[in-house]
Amino acid sequence: MLSINTRLLAAASVVLAAFLGLTGLVLDRAFRDAADTALRERLQAHVYALLAAADVNAGGELSLPDTLPEPRYATPGSGLYAQVRRADNGPLWRSPSAVGLEISWPTVADAGKPHFDTFVLAERGIALQMLSFGVVWETAPNTAAHYTFNVAEDLSATHAQVRRFRRSLWSWLGGAAALLLIAQGVILRWSLAPLRKAAFEVNEIGAGRQTQLEGAYPRELHGLTHSLNTLIRHERTHLERYRNSLADLAHSLKTPLAVLRGIIESHNPSDAATQRTLQEHVRRMDQIVHYQLQRAAAVGRTAFAAPVDVSSVVKKLCASLDKVYAEKNVFCAIQTDNGLVFHGDEADLLEALGNVLDNAYKYCRGKVNVTACATANDKPGLMVEIEDDGPGIPADMAQSVTQRGTRLDTATPGQGIGLAVAHDIVRLYHGALEIDRSGLGGAKISLRLPATEPDITSV
To answer: Which long-range contacts (CB under 8 A, 24 or more apart) does 86-93 make?
Structure first.
């Protein structure tokens, strides 16, 4: 989906283009109408000038002088042409400018009523605007004759004037549109700056560089920013309270279970089967408590988790396990990509990797390899591979060992929940835990975690 800035700019641009286009068409039409009106008024003025210059000669016929006020009548092809025609006797006078031109003049026009028409000179391809004006002239007492005055002007000058105006009009409108679009873009960018700032701060919160939205925002965004800050504080408070409650529950249950175990071991019931049954149920209760507490403590995906450095977590876990299994003298080779981070809860990563690494240290003969890298396939994210040189895990048992309480080696102390907890945490992040054969001869457990960084689209 297009950003808000792009959508507003596109919508405003369409409205602006439509408005300026419509304005240009209206102005163009108005100028053409004004040019046509001016031409017709000019032709009428020429007719009135000819009427003023006309007079009746000694023979009782209407005539015009050899020299007229408009010099273009005397220049052939000047673009201004005229003739006077008697209705019952044909043309009486034609301007020298019309010599050699075949102009189809209207024969008779109603007296006092101007008649406009357009004619194209075939030999020159020039359009003429023509005006025919009929008059009744009294040539002698009680004697009148009907005359038609014809005036025509070349439309080339008018068309050229309209083209010049049109070029100037659209040039100015185009320049105005460009300036308005630039101003509009600047205004929109300035107006949407608070939204971009909010998106930036949310990304900063997701990256762990801020704890809440701290900038000053317009009144319209106060509700949004306040709600986001409240949500972030509520999530963190709820998570802390949840973990504290789980820790209290763990301590509360461990003590009664320890007492029960101690009573069973110290009193030694005479019935060995009863003792085994009690011990088995206590052990199962202890497993359930540990499994459910560790599973419930996993946070899973969150948009406001700070990125966790994978290399430091792996090194911390290996250093702790080196001390726990110091008698085995395990050699752990660690290889991680530079800057590799996990976008999630650090406790989840510690729990998942800790359980898998603990199994690797517990069952290896002396060597463990840890490889962590970023994946670059269709679902980018994080992959951690943990290998050991122990007995390995048979292929037909790969699925069952991720279930709570399933153990392949009952001789080694443990509760059988490590891989199950790791599997559940990975699933919370929509990842996968895979079990395979290691090149060292033992088990290879791969944890694939997709990218979970927040995706905040810029405005």
So the answer is: 86/61, 86/62, 86/145, 86/146, 86/147, 86/148, 87/145, 87/146, 87/147, 87/148, 88/145, 88/146, 92/61, 92/62, 92/63, 92/147, 93/63, 93/64
